[in-house]
Amino acid sequence: MICVSVQEKSFGDCRAILESCEMAELRADLCRLSVEEVERLVEIRPNLIATCRIANSSEAFAREQLAAAIRRGARYVDIEIEAPDEHLEYVRTLAREYGCWLIVSFHDFEGTPSLDELKGIARLCRTKGADLVKIVTTAWNISDAARTMRLYDLQADGALFEGAAAAERPQLVAFSMGEAGKFTRLLCLKLGAPYTYVSAGASNATASGQYTREEMERLLSAENYPFEGFREFRRTTVAVPCSKSVAQRAVLAAALAAGESRLANYAPCNDIVGAVEVIRGMGCRIASDGTTLHIEGVGAERLGRCTKIETGESGLLTRLLTPLASHISALNGGAPVEISGHGSILKRNLHEAVAALREAGVHC
After folding, report:
1. How far apart are CA 25 and CA 18, in angstroms?
2. Which of 326-332's residues contact partners 24+ apart within 8 Å by CB, and which partners?
3. What is the pLDDT of residue 231?
4. How far is residue 21's CA from residue 213's CA, in Å, rounded to a whole number?
5. CB-based contact 177:145 (threshold 8 Å)
6. How far apart are CA 309 and CA 339, in angstroms?
7. 95: which of 119, 141, 226, 357 lies 20 to 30 Å off by Cα?
8. Do 138 and 144 contact (CB within 8 A), yes or no?
9. Spatial separation of the C-alpha atoms in residues 21 and 30, rounded to whole Å
């Protein structure tokens, strides 16, 4: 379900939005309408969340606005977690009397708390009588956003509200504000949120990173949204590209192992080809059928005599080969092995790699 946040200053503008949507949040603290106007709007769209932030108004104004919406039949009422106990008790009691769902909400406009803190916040919302817990954080990176989304896993496992029977666990709406968290406003629907918030238009956003109603409808349309029927994953196969750092390690490991190694998903690049040429010079036989590399390793104790190793511009290959070069030198009676490269590798600082070898007794 898409919930349109309404903050317009005129009754006519608010009414126009409510008449065109299935669900809306009326930000009474931003609209500043009269009690009579609030009541008329609820009559137009009963599937409405009545919200009035005390920080933007006053406790008396919020109580008046929310009471009017509840008595007229609003489906939900939203109280911030930091609201005074007396105010919360008044609204909660009235909501119970009129069959209105109580949302207890937490907003962090600075960042994202730890997962343990988020769990504690969710449980505090429940103890305050929430039928629905709303947790909104600010994401500065993907890790922040992912941490907020973890709450849905805990909800599904029953770990978020431990000790509470399934029927007593409140629903959860959790997502992140900010551009880094924008995707969570869409993802939360797939993870179990009953609705998500959008703005009426590009100039009507009530929070950062908010999609417009038009954008969200387009994302959820069958031709654009990557879930069939919005409920089932479309099964497909994804080919993960070859990692050059993993491939270089695998190539050297194949040289140290006696016998044939088959490295699948092979995709040649300068760094990987450089590693292949190095072990070819050590006596390994290599063949490729396009996507699989076949390496006949000679074994760690039978590496061929090798006096010069060229690593191109690969810093990783250079670092991996310094200890291997000392091993080859030992196999050949202490004969020196030279490692060389070109381009940007000549500006790399290899002091730590050299220091480690010297501590092991290697002359560099």
Report:
1. 9
2. 326/357, 326/360, 326/362, 327/300, 327/303, 328/282, 328/303, 329/362, 331/301, 331/303, 332/305
3. 46
4. 9
5. no
6. 5
7. 119
8. yes
9. 19
Q: How confident is the model at residue 270 (pLDDT cuts 50, 70, 90)?
A: confident
What is the rounded radius of gyration, in angstroms, for the C-alpha atoms of the chain? 31
- Considering only 101-115, 229-243, 349-363, which range has the smallest mean pLDDT? 229-243
- What is the model's pLDDT at position 128? 94
154 neighbors 129 (Cβ within 8 angstroms):
no
What are the tens digits of pLDDT across the range 201-219? 888 788 888 999 999 988 8
Is residue 25 within 8 Å of residue 6, measured between CB atoms? yes
Q: Tell if the pTM clears 0.70, that is, is over it.
A: no
CB 149 within 8 A of CB 188: yes
Q: Is 224 exposed, middle or buried (0-12, 13-18, 19+ CB in 10 A)?
A: exposed
| List of E strands, 139-230 | 171-177, 196-199, 227-228
Please tell me the distance from the alpha carbon of residue 213 to that of residue 192, in angstroms, as a whole number.
20
> What beta strand segments (E) does the chain contain?
2-6, 23-27, 48-51, 76-80, 101-107, 132-138, 171-177, 196-199, 227-228, 232-233, 259-263, 285-288, 293-297, 308-310, 338-340
Q: Name every residue whose Cβ is closer than 8 Å to that of residue 289 and which is 6 or more positions away in sequence.
A: none
Helix (H, G, I), strand (E, B) or coil at 26: strand
Of 238, 242, 240, which is closest to residue 272 (Cα–Cα)?
242
Cα 195 to Cα 1: distance, rounded to the nearest angstrom: 4
Q: Are strands 285-288 and 293-297 parallel, antiparallel or unpaired?
A: antiparallel
